[in-house]
Write a structure and sequence with these properties.
By secondary structure, this protein is mostly helical. The protein folds into 2 domains: 2-33, no CATH class; 46-274 and 334-509, Serine Threonine Protein Phosphatase 5, Tetratricopeptide repeat, CATH 1.25.40.390. The protein has helices at 2-8, 36-41, 44-47, 50-54, 63-71, 74-77, 100-125, 130-151, 171-190, 209-226, 232-244, 266-273, 281-289, 295-298, 325-332, 352-364, 373-387, 393-398, 433-448, 452-462, 492-497, 499-509; strands spanning 12-13, 17-18, 81-82, 257-260, 278-279, 346-350. The strands form 3 sheets. The chain has a two-stranded antiparallel ribbon. A two-stranded antiparallel ribbon has the order 3-5. α8 runs parallel beside α10. The radius of gyration is 25 Å and the shape is globular.
């Protein structure tokens, strides 16, 4: 076509007229390029920017990006998963010898693919298309609270501001900005719930704005609970706002926040193809101790040892007696892999079960509109069982004797360890709030699998569930083995390009820029 155009533009056509090359330049276009005008016809100049946002809350293609962004930090620190291979001869993130090159992905992926695209969408929609602006804000909060919950201070309210480039918010300032952005989003969407404009670009709810308001309310409740110890007054205000908003919270499993992608979950590649991740011993202790039927929905039976499921202790060094990493991996790769029911293109980011457990804690804290703590707790368990097609929920909820089990390593008995908790499942109205909270968080932790980022955050905030410490702590004294890792240090890419910003962020952090410093909401104080 291009050659015909070139020839056609430089000849006399039927002797009737002469057309210059410049006159027909409009036809001589590389059809692989799409102009801004063409994109605007079906609103792709805005809509095309949503897909990389959805797919970079954590980046699931290529799988190694997710492996570095979340799997070899939060998924392991949460007690969900661990690596059978002791990478870098055992000196890696899982043993608290933090690898800077790995950790850059936790920062760079959301800034490159979320914040940049949200900024573009905001510039195009803020004034004229408020519903599209609103959904972008919800996605922004969903992505960036995770980044703050890893590092603490982040560049958020000043992102893209050329007068304050690279200026960090404290974590408190960032959280206040999250709540403000959710206010704007809910107001914009609530004013026009029936607009179809987002349908073609929505990878979660098919353009249903009421579902997006439910998500915004549920995220608000999550963040309110997160700050309930450090700023209880603000937490109560925001939590009660979420509980009372007209569109409500997630109620059924169909309301859950999932990204409907076209590729398998990155854990499928990391787990099945590479054999780089397996069940964590803490997960085994709790699931088997409770005879939890979800164990078979989450994990496969081991191939190298007997039992229903078998986990690996977190933070394994290169153990003595092994010639190299691969020889040690060969002994553990036969432990429980992740069930293919988790390896779907429908990537989980927030479940309705989590929301029920959030309401249970809100009720413990006396927040208006939260309902009954026991009813919410039991509903959370029921929803999780239903989500995963597991049987026996009623008997499980009534079980007042089962407790987490001791862990036995059939390969290296030196890794054996007694269970960390004696908490049971059944609700006990006479228990203390602390005991009730341990039940709530333990069950929430089970229900949120495999979303390790949120599980790690809740472990740091509450101390629950009680998970096994690392076998080998190679932090050089910056991380307490029993307290466990609290954050990831600011990344090298920021230190090299925004040294002044990082220096200020460290002062906002209130402690050393290492893995042992607690975040703002991670007070270390009693839960009540």
């Amino acid at each position: 076509m291009k050659n015909i155009n070139k020839l056609f533009s430089c000849v006399v056509i039927l002797g009737l007229f002469v057309t210059s090359c410049s006159d027909l330049e409009q036809y001589n276009i590389n059809d692989k390029n799409i102009s801004d005008e063409q994109l605007e016809v079906d609103f792709q100049h805005v809509g095309s920017k949503y897909k990389p946002i959805f797919e970079s809350i954590y980046q699931y293609s290529p799988a190694w990006s997710y492996q570095l962004q979340q799997n070899l930090n939060a998924d392991v620190y949460s007690g969900y998963l661990t690596n059978p291979r002791p990478f870098v001869a055992g000196a890696n993130n899982t043993t608290y010898s933090l690898v800077s090159g790995w950790n850059n992905f936790i920062w760079s992926v959301p800034y490159s693919n979320v914040m940049n695209n949200v900024k573009s969408i905001s510039d195009l929609t803020k004034d004229d298309f408020p519903t599209l602006y609103g959904t972008a804000l919800i996605l922004k909060v969903a992505a960036m609270h995770r980044v703050s919950d890893v590092f603490g201070p982040i560049v958020y309210s000043n992102f893209g501001d050329l007068t304050n480039p690279g200026v960090y918010d404290s974590q408190q300032e960032a959280y206040n900005a999250f709540f403000t952005d959710l206010d704007t989003a809910v107001a914009n969407l609530s004013a026009n719930l029936d607009s179809p404009r987002f349908t073609a670009f929505d990878l979660s709810y098919g353009g249903d704005y009421k579902q997006w308001v439910k998500l915004a309310n549920s995220l608000r409740l999550r963040l309110a609970i997160r700050i309930s110890k450090v700023d209880p007054a603000k937490a109560k205000i925001e939590g009660e706002k979420a509980l009372s908003q007209a569109s409500g919270l997630m109620v059924g499993n169909e309301d859950g926040f999932f990204v409907n992608g076209t590729l398998d979950h990155p854990l499928s590649v990391i787990d099945n193809s590479w054999g780089d991740i397996r069940m964590n011993a803490s997960m085994e202790s709790i699931l088997t101790g409770y005879s939890d039927s979800r164990a078979n929905s989450y994990f496969d039976a081991p191939t190298s040892v007997s039992g229903s499921v078998k986990g690996v202790r977190g933070g394994l060094p290169l153990l003595s007696g092994y010639a190299d990493e691969l020889e040690q991996k060969a002994d553990y790769i036969g432990f429980s892999a992740i069930n293919d029911g988790i390896h779907t293109p429908k990537v989980q980011l927030m479940t309705t079960a989590e929301v029920a457990f959030l309401k249970a804690e809100a009720a413990l804290r006396g927040w208006s509109g939260a309902g009954d703590a026991k009813a919410n707790y039991e509903m959370g368990i029921m929803l999780s069982f239903q989500q995963h097609g597991a049987s026996g929920a009623a008997a499980y909820i009534a079980d007042n004797t089962s407790k987490p089990s001791d862990y036995v390593d059939p390969v290296n008995p030196s890794n054996n360890i007694a269970a960390m908790s004696t908490i049971t499942i059944a609700w006990d109205a006479a228990a203390t709030n602390e005991e009730k909270l341990e039940k709530i968080i333990t069950q929430k932790w089970i229900a949120m699998f495999p979303e390790g980022q949120e599980a790690w955050s809740e472990y740091r905030r509450t101390g629950y569930p009680k998970i096994f410490p690392v076998v080998s702590n190679q932090s050089g004294g910056t991380v307490d083995t029993n307290i466990q890792i609290r954050r990831i240090p600011f990344v090298d890419s920021e230190k090299s390009t925004n040294a002044e910003g990082v220096a200020n962020a460290t002062s906002l952090l209130g402690g050393a820029d290492n893995g042992g410093t607690r975040l703002w909401w991670d007070t270390g104080a009693p839960n009540f």
